[in-house]
Amino acid sequence: MSNEIIIKQNLKVKAKFESYPIEIRKKMDALKALILETASEIETITEIEETLKWGEPSYISKKGSTIRMDWKTKMPNQYAMYFNCNTSLVETFKTVYGSLFKYVKNRAIVFSLEDKIPHKELKDCIAMALQYHTLKNKPFLGK
Questions:
Q1: Residue 98 belongs to a domain
Q2: Count of C-beta atoms within a 10 Å radius of residue 73
Q3: What is the pLDDT of residues 21-80, one digit of tens each?
């Protein structure tokens, strides 16, 4: 079931998306769509703020932890979804999903350009981040 959510959009994020090469833009658009779709399926989320943090497209809900994403020219064959390294999010993802994802320490899930994204599992990770402050004291963040 989907809720109607308010998306506070930011023109700087739109410009950032437009700066990506077309094949990367499609990947980033898909991640953004997954974040917004996941948010709309969580009844307690009524609003998502889109912004740039550290020059990266970022999304946050009122009771959540920021989700950032980006592609960098120095690593042209990969893109990533970043999570606050001061949370237990990535450690929980590793515990729950093991080697399904590639991780960078306790801060990111990294995708190769040719990876097939496991949508259901990534949506679970996104949902944990979007609700982090209500889940942080639960085992496996409610998973």
A1: yes
A2: 7
A3: 999 999 999 999 999 999 999 999 999 999 999 999 999 999 999 999 999 999 999 999
**Domain presence at residue 139:** no
Structural domains in the chain (count) = 1
- Using alpha carbons only, give the angle 47, 26, 115 rounded to the nearest 5 degrees: 105
Distance from the first to the final alpha carbon of the chain: 19
Q: Which helix (H) or strand (E) holds 104?
A: strand 102-104
Q: 143 in a domain, yes or no?
A: no
The model's pTM: 0.92
> Nearest to residue 53, comparing CAs of 79, 102, 99, 16?
16
Residue 37 lies in a domain: yes
Q: Which residues contact 140 (CB under 8 A, 6 or more apart)?
A: 92, 95, 96
Write the CATH number for 88. Answer: 3.90.1150.200
